[in-house]
Structures are given as structure tokens and as C-alpha cells.
Amino acid sequence: MHVFWIALAVVFAGGIALGAQAPINSALSRAAGNSILATAASFGVGFIALSLVALFRGGIPGASDFKAAQPWMFAGGLLGAFYVWSALWSVSRLGVVTMTAGLILGQLLVAMVIDSTGAFGVPVNEISWQRMVAILLVGAGLVMSRL
């Protein structure tokens, strides 16, 4: 199977997981009565799961494995924590479809900036009218989800 289709299938499955994650985490937040605690618990479970996968794949990485990493490269953990909290906090206020559309619109806007500038070492992909229309359609979908 071509690597493109494998990658597309994996990211599609990731999207399914993301769509289910926010309402599940929101339920955890309601049960705990604390959205920050629920976010921390979600990350804790994820940390344990990934640690087990790493262990079975050949060991837990140590600090020396990150010697080439610059401090800003760890910001993904902070951004991930904010994402999880923002999704679990907003899903009960917006609904799953509107919350997801808002997240996707935000992702697409920053993705276009990152693609067009090559930020963080990604290959440059120019802004095209097709990409602009795709983002506008997602924005229209976000508006339509609330009508």
C-alpha cells in the first residue's frame, strides 16, 4: 500500500479519536468537577500509555535522547495541554460539531501560515486559491453549524 494512503488512514483514525476525545474528557471534567484536573488526568493516562508503548518498542528514552532538542521544541506539550483543556471546556457550551469546526478552522489557519513560511522545518507549500477556498468553506461550515 502506498505510504500516502497509510498516512491518510492513520490521520483519519486520529481525527476520529480527536472527535471522541473532547466529549469523553468533558464527561471526566463534569465527574471530577474540575476541568484542569480532568485535563491533567487525560495527559497522565496518555503518558502511561505512551510509556508502555515505548517500553515494549525498546525502552524508555532518557534525557540524552533529547540532547539535540532546543527548549522551544517542548512547547508542543503546553500547546497540547491547552488544546485538550479548550476542547473539554468548550464542547458542552458549543456542541461537538461546532467545537470541532472551530478547532479545525484554527488548525487550518495556523497550518497555512506554517506551510507558507516553512516554520519549524516543514517543507514550504505556497498559499493557493484552492487552499484559501477550503479554509473559507470550513469557516462557512462553522457558521452553518450554529444556524
Total helix count? 5
Q: Please state the overall shape, judged from the principal axes of the Cα atoms.
A: globular
How large is the share of residues in beta strands?
Answer: under 5%
Distance between the termini: 42 Å
Judged by helices, strands and strand pairing, the structural class is mainly alpha
Largest sheet: none
Order of helices and strands: HHHHH
Give a count of the beta strands, DSSP E runs of length 2 or more.
Answer: 0
Notes on the protein architecture:
This protein is an all-alpha fold and 147 residues long. 75% of the residues lie in helices and 0% in strands. It contains five helices and no strands. It has helices at residues 3-32, 35-56, 75-94, 96-117, 129-144. Helix 1 (3-32) packs across helix 2 and helix 4 packs antiparallel against helix 5. The chain is globular.
List its salient traits.
single chain, 147 residues, mainly alpha, 5 helices
Write a short abstract of this structure.
The chain has 147 residues and is mostly helical. It has helices at 3-32, 35-56, 75-94, 96-117, 129-144. It is globular.
Fold blueprint:
Layout (H helix, E strand, L loop, with lengths): L2 H30 L2 H22 L18 H20 L1 H22 L11 H16 L3
Helix pairs in contact: 1-2, 1-3, 2-3, 3-4, 4-5
